[in-house]
């Protein structure tokens, strides 16, 4: 239960509004959306609902409101993908904070709050996940204005979505009394964990319970004060990790020793369910956490039979189903209420009402050390990407694409030799003490143990086919001597 006297939220007057800084949390693997979403390239980097990725859509909501470029807190492995996707939609000055290890949402938000508070502790953080969907952004902005007013007065505000069904995949918020002089904002009576079907139906029937969106609006100073009060160990660890952070190109890397000692705890458990300052803005703007394939079916454009399709799909006598393919022809006949998802290396077929359980399959794959659980055949790197084409005993073939002006690390291998065939563009190859220009339809051989580097000096992407041969072909057989992206492994 939370409560407190009116106006106990802070020192600013109700009519004074602080500047707003979007904070985007980009973590997690989205395993319920396997096989598209995996640890190496999770759901926020995919275009699942619009022409933009979920991350881009999230960032653009702040841009369309006229807010500053966002602060993004993310896994260091994803930093170049995030920077590139934001640049692609015109956001070039985002502050990207790199977590050395995942410690859940409370430490991530605290890190962003410390960074923002260095310049303005009264700035309001608009905290949101990178992978949620919003159908009606103008309505969201109206709700945001209400939340910012309350946050400027010292409240920790969340958005409560008006429920449309007895959903078991979301937590719930009980709406309390209205807060005086701040229209549309209410006290939080209490939070409810994700319920079973019977309890969800009962909550829906009562009419005063809202879905917990996981979005928060709060002054940086308020959040830090609450974290210090309720989770002092977390406060101390994150404060020190921010103080000792390092600049890594355009990124800010938190100190690993101190950040890793922080408790692993969500913002709900750390603060929201304990604070005396919790408030909620009820909303109905088409929010979804896009957490499962049935959620994408709910949000998608349906045909006359209630099907949602994506890609090269052929249906015959199919209804109420979600069918997606990223290349292969997916032909489906005589079924209903199914999820069918095909990627280059995996196919998922599931009953739509079991879509929430896909993560159990992923866990079984991890337990069996199956690489498909976490990685795609297509692997993104800061210089471009590579795609595994085929492999056999002592050989492996890849397609490599290097963006203009980019270069791989100067490296060598102890267990394999490589043969590069350029099929598009012009490559500059360092091999030992020589530099060789390799043009389209030309090739070069790199013996085992030779020092080498691949660069793209031109204005169009370089595409080449790499044939590896040797006793061991793992990605960890790379010894780097120089890397413009500051990678050590």
TrEMBL record:
The keyword Acetylation does not apply. Keywords: GTP-binding, Isomerase, Nucleotide-binding, Nucleotidyltransferase, Transferase. Its EC number is 2.7.7.13. Residues 370-483 form the Mannose-6-phosphate isomerase type II C-terminal domain. Pfam families: ManC_GMP_beta-helix, MannoseP_isomer, NTP_transferase. NCBIfam families: GMP_PMI (TIGR01479). This is mannose-1-phosphate guanylyltransferase. It comes from Acetobacter lambici. The lineage of its organism: Bacteria, Pseudomonadati, Pseudomonadota, Alphaproteobacteria, Acetobacterales.
